[in-house]
Amino acid sequence: MPRPSGTDQKTPVRVLVVDDEPQIVRALVINLKARRYEVDAAPDGTTALELAATRHPDVVVLDLGLPDMDGVEVIKGLRGWTRVPILVLSARQTSDEKVEALDAGADDYVTKPFGMDELLARLRAAVRRAEPVGQHEAEVVVRTDTFGIDLAAKKVNRGGRDVRLTPTEWHLLEVLVRNTGRLVSQKQLLQEVWGPAYGTETNYLRVYMAQLRRKLEADPSHPRHFITEPGMGYRFEP
């Protein structure tokens, strides 16, 4: 059964908070523990990577401006071995910096200063996206000429090898595959994958569709399976 995410938890969700600002860490720890999360905190990237390896968090809240290394390097370090959801929390506001973090493997981006309710809602959404497919859902196995998808097992195989996808990539892939051959609008994708508060952040879709194509298409610049309908949405063709 899926793990609860934030309230009335039987198996508490473990959060790793990575930030060098004590007041932000204190506010996050108080609010998360009040909602029955288990919380670890790291003031720098080195400690964060060590805690992630030993404590196995269910979600990471990561500031990009760390004293010993850039947060993007922490994302890359985590993505080398884990698909744990990563929620970036940063004062950096430019589109290029956000895309860089998302492209490195982050799952969402919250800009400082932030509202605690919004942050907690996005954290819950990140945890939900990482939950395994329920046993009640029908198994879906799709094969193309270059790769195979097993949605129930959350596996993609290409050329005899498993392809590692982030939780957000998995969720986007699942929505498209469950609507095989049908156009899925940008708004629908954003709301199903990122949550009901989203609807206009089309740059998220461009980043993640590019990542899926890079990992799965034989020729990412001329995709056969992940089709863009300009200004409308995306479609998966096996």
From TrEMBL:
The modification 4-aspartylphosphate is found at D63. It is found in: Cytoplasm. Residues 14-127 form the Response regulatory domain. PROSITE patterns: OMPR_PHOB, RESPONSE_REGULATORY. One of its GO terms (cellular component) is protein-DNA complex. PANTHER family: KDP OPERON TRANSCRIPTIONAL REGULATORY PROTEIN KDPE, REGULATOR OF RPOS. This is Transcriptional regulatory protein KdpE. The lineage of its organism: Bacteria, Bacillati, Actinomycetota, Actinomycetes, Kitasatosporales.
